[in-house]
Write a structure and sequence with these properties.
This protein has 341 residues and is α/β, with parallel strands linked by helices. It folds into two domains: 2-146 and 310-340, Quinone Oxidoreductase, Chain A, domain 1 (Alpha-Beta Complex), CATH 3.90.180.10; 150-287, Medium-chain alcohol dehydrogenases, catalytic domain (Quinone Oxidoreductase, Chain A, domain 1). It has eleven helices and 17 strands. It has helices at residues 41-48, 96-99, 140-145, 147-160, 177-188, 200-208, 222-229, 246-252, 275-280, 293-304, 321-329; strands spanning 2-5, 16-19, 29-38, 63-71, 83-86, 89-90, 110-111, 123-127, 131-133, 168-171, 192-197, 213-216, 235-240, 254-262, 284-287, 312-317, 336-340. Strand 10 (168-171), helix 5 and strand 11 (192-197) form a beta-alpha-beta unit. The termini are close together. The structure holds zinc ion. Zinc ion (ZN) binds next to helix 2.
């Protein structure tokens, strides 16, 4: 098989295309001939070596879709020829959290491409239960682009923050993967959505996805602008996938009783919160780590009803993965970047 991998941590230049023996599926596993694999910010963190040590060489990539081309012993869920997408969370299926449907809280929870070899390849082997049928009308590029970000945004808005119809949701970084998914899901949930993004083109995208207003965060101070747009009240939910110093701003942007949901830290790993802003306005600070399989099934049901669409910036050939990652790191993309084999 062909794969894009790295042998040491570093910038996009450490990515190389290599020929490797195709992995064989073991009992309960299936092999996917990957047709499309989507990028996530996670891929950059893995490449930079910001997480726990991983065996080298490493193939990144958490999202993918393709055709089953081999199955291991005892597999009945899928068969060769099936068109499937990847559920990017791996869990034991046996522990109390898994059995309660909260598989991202499983003690052995792992993310494809983070703690395992990933999808920047022509083939990948996964447990058969991680391969889900494509919803009606969904093509391979959409099927690769959707799972991780829509699952994360669904888990943030509904499971963690408990979004209720009529609430106001603020989405910073609106043209990113989680941002563009969050706007659409908040609209499905009956929310009023206000967004912020860097530049008029990204704001136009946010409005086209259903944001009532979007302002240019490079020109306007977010907290003041959000207060203005909400008559001084602030947001019921802030979907913070930015982290860093933005987290403190997110707390300050909440209405009384508001919730900040954090799923990532592209702006930096730590934050200085104003404790008084947290307690005086009764703000809840919630962490979200991807999400469970049932939430992905809900997302796919909404895709099947054409109520959601993954925003794809552009596709690249597998061998152009470094160029695609550079585009993501330079924040030039409007939506998802997808590698096609
Ligand atoms: Zn478990």
């Amino acid at each position: 098989m062909r794969a894009v991998l790295f042998r040491k941590h570093g910038g996009a230049e450490v990515l190389e295309t290599a020929e490797l023996p195709a992995p064989e599926p073991g009992a309960g596993e299936a092999r996917l001939a990957v047709k499309a694999a989507a990028l996530n910010h996670l891929d950059i963190w893995v490449r930079n070596g910001l997480g726990a040590p991983i065996p080298m060489p490493h193939i990144p990539g958490s999202d993918g879709a393709g055709v089953v081309d081999a199955v291991g012993a005892g597999v009945t869920l899928v068969k060769p020829g099936d068109e499937v997408l990847i559920a990017p969370g791996l869990s034991c299926g046996q522990c109390p959290e898994c059995r309660a449907g909260r598989d991202s809280r499983c003690p052995s929870f792992r993310i494809v491409g983070l703690q395992t070899q990933g999808t920047y390849a022509t083939h990948v082997v996964l447990p058969a239960e991680n391969l889900l049928p494509l919803p009606p009308g969904m093509n391979m590029v959409q099927a690769a682009a959707a799972p991780l970000v829509f699952l994360t945004a669904y888990h943030m808005l509904f499971t963690r923050a408990g979004l209720r119809p009529g609430e106001t949701v603020f989405v910073p970084g609106a043209a990113s993967g989680v941002g563009s998914a969050g706007i659409q899901l908040a609209v499905v949930g009956g929310a009023r959505v206000i967004a912020a993004a860097g530049g008029p083109e990204k704001c136009e995208l946010a409005r086209s996805l259903g944001a009532e207003a979007c302002f240019d965060s490079s020109k306007k101070e977010e907290a003041a602008e959000l207060r203005r747009l909400t008559g001084g009240r602030g947001a019921d939910i802030v979907l913070d996938h930015v982290g860093g110093d933005h987290l403190a701003a997110s707390v300050a942007m909440c209405a009384r009783g508001g919730r900040v949901v954090s799923c990532g830290a592209t702006a930096g790993p730590s934050s200085t919160l104003t404790v008084r802003a947290l307690y005086a306005a009764e703000v809840s600070l919630l962490g979200a780590y991807m999400g469970g399989r049932w939430e992905l099934m809900e997302v796919l049901r909404l895709f099947g009803q054409r109520r959601l669409a993954a925003v794809v910036d552009r596709t690249f050939a597998l061998a152009e993965a470094a160029e695609a990652q550079r585009r993501m790191e330079a924040r030039q993309n409007l939506g998802k970047l997808v590698l096609v084999t």
